[in-house]
Design goal:
The structure holds two protein chains of two kinds. By secondary structure, chain A is an alpha/beta fold. Chain A has helices spanning 2-33, 77-100, 185-195, 207-217, 240-259, 284-291, 313-328; strands at 42-48, 103-109, 129-132, 151-157, 173-178, 181-182, 200-206, 222-231, 234-238, 272-278, 299-300, 305-310. Helices cover 37% and strands 21% of the residues of chain A. In chain B, 36% of the residues lie in helices and 20% in strands. Chain B is built from nine helices and twelve strands. The chains are: A alpha/beta, B alpha/beta.
Chain lengths: 329, 341
């Protein structure tokens, strides 16, 4: 009796699952087609991450502990709470500077997976800004980007996986290259935005992130060094007040120079030949999940290395979404 | 109904397997003894120093402050007051982070009044992996070095452009009758036969670069032993020790005032050439014994570090070097062995 009902239950699940997936696909298309409301004036798209923000050095300062099993022991809410406020204040300083230079519309998209992309304190954020928060969301770090934005700013960004920076990593990858060029998270998002004609004018983070991103984008992007890495979780840091002053001044400069057309969007030659290597630490089942992602024809060329050729950076972004979802599920 | 039954059966199966897993005697996890040098940042002293120098002004007077916690005004209990909830401590730690920040700010204010123009604060307390000062409440002129691992834990980035070192919240040496008295991972540590506590080791590393230790604050055991070790430097006694976890504390506000005044005097005395760097004869003959409480694997790992040779009893070693910086790196590798997160 019990066995038969268990069988029925399994069959029901098997029947329902594909239907649910189809529903998800339709919803996903609808979500991807949505845009944040249009606003008049020069528009700035801000992506705040946390690893590269002022003062933060340890993963326990940027993780809430509710992101999944692997993060439970890395939680330190007593520290994370404090850094949420500092993060929000960094974003506010950036908005203040951009506004001084004439920007009038601000969209802030949570770029940090801590607390599943809900770190900025909505009540303390500049009241002119729209805040994109939560997960999953289409195009994780740049959900809501479109061609109406005048410029893009990354704050609190961290160095690439393998670089000697504070909490350095790159989404779910040990390495990610397009046409043979190594890209960090800023680079990947810059490429997607670049297809829409939007350029990156300012990045802030540790000295390693700033140097590698300036070289990667090659468009004279302004860099604000808010700390100098002396270990994977140690840094020479400055007063949050000083960091905010630096960000405000740099954001004003960035918007002014963007308005003058000084920064080129980041583009690479099509088709994009993407090669990505998943993190060493990931389980075989996770690697197999990625290998089995239906909507992409991933060519498996190594233990955990995949290749893909695409004409659309945005599609590559959606692939990264799917991988992030598999990791954070 | 049948579905409910199935769910119950399934969940009871799951629960019982969890219970079995919990009852199983824990197998000792294999200890990771990767050589510390393989980890980015552990022996990168020079890189840290170069990066710090990029941020330093070439003129004026620079004070380098080491921030520990055991010697703070009113602090007596390690488990609750010097350890955050996330590392098995208590919410009271937050209040003592504030006290630490206040005491550093008092030192900075006093040093500024004495003519100092630049301030570097290096986190020296490992209970939170070197993250105790509250960045948003620290004097905004200060540079704060925080996190772990960082090169030469308590003297990260120290260089000849620094004019004076100070240590706040310091504790007495291992074996001394002080609040939470200890000395890194050691039961004893000597250079050329001279006993050094943590303040003394920092003074030794700074001394080689011509930087004097000008001020130490902590309990009466710390202040008296440090004066004996380093001579008539400025001291501020924050409390009178009654046991390893009890003391008669001076009011924090009074301690802050004394720190301000002592820091002003310290800067003036360094500027007038009255306080000199600690100089020991080369080659430095270092002898140390690891804490007796450590497991065998710690002794084995430390014994296998380059240049370290057995000396005396179990867990005791000798190391000779022409450079205090090399001694600092050795210290770093020992810390990494016992503190690796």
């Amino acid at each position: 009796m019990v066995r038969r009902s268990a069988l029925l239950l399994v069959m029901a699940v098997l029947l329902v699952a594909p239907l649910a997936a189809q529903g998800n696909a339709a919803a996903r298309e609808a979500f991807r087609a949505k845009r944040v409301p249009q606003q008049a004036g020069f528009r700035v798209f801000i992506v705040p991450d946390m690893e590269g923000m002022g003062s933060a050095v340890d993963i326990r300062e940027v993780i809430a502990g509710n992101e999944g099993e692997q993060y439970r022991n890395l939680s330190s809410p007593d520290y994370w709470d404090r850094y949420r406020l500092l993060l929000t204040q960094e974003v506010n300083a950036t908005i203040r500077g951009a506004r001084q230079a004439g920007a009038r519309s601000f969209v802030v998209n949570e770029g940090h997976g801590g607390n599943l992309f809900a770190n900025v304190l909505p009540w303390d954020l500049d009241t002119a800004a729209m805040l994109v928060r939560g997960f999953p969301k289409p195009l994780v770090m740049i959900t809501g980007i479109d061609s109406t934005f005048g410029t893009m700013i990354f704050t609190g960004a961290h160095a690439n996986a393998g670089s000697p920076g504070v909490m350095a990593h790159n989404f779910a990858f040990d390495s990610f290259t397009v046409n043979g060029r190594r890209l960090n998270e800023v680079g990947i998002n810059a490429l997607i935005a670049g297809e829409m004609g939007v350029s990156v004018s300012l990045v802030s983070g540790d000295d390693v992130l700033v140097a590698e991103t300036q070289e990667m984008l090659g468009n004279g992007v302004i860099g604000v060094v808010v700390k100098r890495a002396v270990g994977r979780m140690a840094a020479i840091t400055y007063s949050p007040a000083r960091v905010r002053r630096m960000l405000q001044a740099a954001a004003a400069d960035a918007v002014r120079r963007e308005m003058a057309g000084e920064f080129k969007p980041f583009t690479l030659e099509r088709p994009y030949r993407v090669e990505m290597k998943l993190r060493r630490g990931y389980s075989d089942s996770l690697v197999n999940t990625v290998a089995g992602l239906k909507d992409w024809q991933l060519e498996r060329v190594g233990d955990r290395t995949f290749r893909l050729t695409s004409n659309s950076a945005r599609d590559v972004g959606y692939l990264i979404d799917a991988i992030e979802e598999a990791v954070l599920r | 109904m049948t579905r409910l039954l199935t769910a119950l059966v399934l969940s009871s199966l799951v629960l019982s397997s969890v219970a079995r897993a919990q009852n199983r005697p824990a197998e000792p996890a294999p200890r990771d003894t990767t050589p510390p040098a393989a980890y980015f940042g552990v022996t990168e002293y020079r890189m840290a120093r170069e990066k710090l120098e990029l941020d330093m002004q070439r003129t004026g007077f620079t004070v380098y402050i080491i921030a520990d916690m055991e010697g703070l005004a009113a602090a007596v209990r390690n488990g609750t007051e010097m350890r955050p909830v996330s590392r098995g401590g208590s919410p009271q730690h937050e209040r003592f982070r504030r006290e630490l920040t206040d005491e550093i700010n008092a030192l900075i204010a006093g040093a500024r009044a004495g003519g100092a123009t630049q301030f570097i604060v290096n986190e020296g307390h490992g209970g939170t992996l070197f993250r105790n000062v509250l960045p948003e409440l620290l004097d905004t002129a200060a540079i704060l070095i925080r996190g772990y691992p960082k090169p030469i834990v308590m003297s990260t980035g120290i260089n000849p452009m620094v004019d004076a070192m100070m240590i706040v919240g310091a504790h007495a040496n291992a074996g001394s009758p002080g609040v939470i008295a200890h000395n890194f991972a050691f039961d004893s540590f000597t250079v050329n036969g001279k006993v050094l506590n943590e303040a003394g080791i920092a003074a030794f590393i700074g001394g080689e670069m011509g930087v004097p230790m000008a001020l130490a604050s902590g309990d009466d055991a710390l202040t008296s032993e440090t004066r004996e070790m380093l001579g008539p430097i400025e001291i501020v006694t924050t409390k009178i020790v009654f046991s390893r976890a009890a003391a008669a504390g001076f009011p924090p506000a009074q301690v802050h005032r004394q720190l301000r005044e002592a820091a002003t005097r310290a800067v003036r005395r360094v500027r007038s050439g009255e306080l000199k760097p600690l100089a020991l004869a080369r080659p430095y003959q270092v002898r140390f014994c690891l804490r007796r409480s450590y497991d065998e694997w710690v002794r084995t790992t430390v014994g296998s570090l380059s240049g370290v040779r057995p000396d005396g009893g179990p867990g005791c070693f000798a190391y000779a070097s022409e450079s205090a910086e090399a001694v600092g790196n050795l210290l770093n590798e020992v810390e990494w062995t016992v503190l690796k997160p």
